[in-house]
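Propose amino acids for all 195 sites.
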């Protein structure tokens, strides 16, 4: 019964995580088509032909304009200037929106290596114990801000400040650390072997 409840819960949560970006894409795409139609309708009125092979000219123009805009946006995103703009926007969002980095890491909105840059998995040593944590900030004088995730819910945790000599990077990704927390540490010693 407990396994069935867990299966239903994880399936439901997985469905929500899958649908949120999908719904966002559909909404954005719908708005984009509406905007492109407002550009295509006046252009369509300038063209003396009403249909091409029985298809109205406005949907064709809308599709062409959408294609050109997507192509231009893709070229901009690949350019160094576009990547700088994205990086600055990402930094602003990280500072303004609480939990933005967390959501990006959880939903896979960023690649694992990028998540590991935003929330670097580390092992922090306190007296006679060590804990998995994420390094979130570092000062020039060696003070390190860390986020220690809770278990079983890694979204709730503690922010602590330690000296850099207490921090040891771990060679596991963001998702692996959150999985360890969700599993209450089960099967984590194999991942952390050699540290």
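Proposal:
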């Amino acid at each position: 019964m407990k396994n069935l409840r867990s299966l239903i819960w994880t399936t439901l949560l997985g469905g929500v995580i899958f649908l949120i970006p999908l719904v966002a894409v559909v909404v954005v795409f719908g708005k984009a088509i509406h905007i492109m139609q407002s550009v295509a309708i006046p252009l369509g009125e300038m063209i003396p032909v009403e249909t091409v092979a029985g298809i109205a000219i406005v949907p064709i123009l809308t599709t062409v304009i959408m294609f050109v805009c997507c192509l231009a946006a893709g070229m901009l995103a690949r350019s160094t200037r576009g990547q700088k703009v994205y990086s600055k926007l990402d930094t602003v969002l990280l500072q303004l929106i609480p939990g933005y980095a967390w959501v990006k890491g959880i939903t896979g909105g960023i690649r694992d290596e990028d998540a590991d840059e935003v929330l670097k998995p580390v092992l922090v040593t306190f007296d006679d114990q060590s804990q998995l944590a994420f390094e979130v900030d570092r000062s020039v004088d060696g003070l390190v801000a860390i986020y220690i995730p809770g278990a079983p819910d890694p979204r709730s945790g503690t922010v602590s400040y330690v000296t850099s000599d207490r921090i040891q990077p771990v060679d596991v990704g963001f998702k692996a650390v959150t999985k360890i927390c969700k599993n209450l540490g089960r099967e984590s010693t194999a991942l952390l072997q050699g540290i």
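The mean pLDDT is 76. The CA atoms of residues 65 and 71 lie 10 Å apart.
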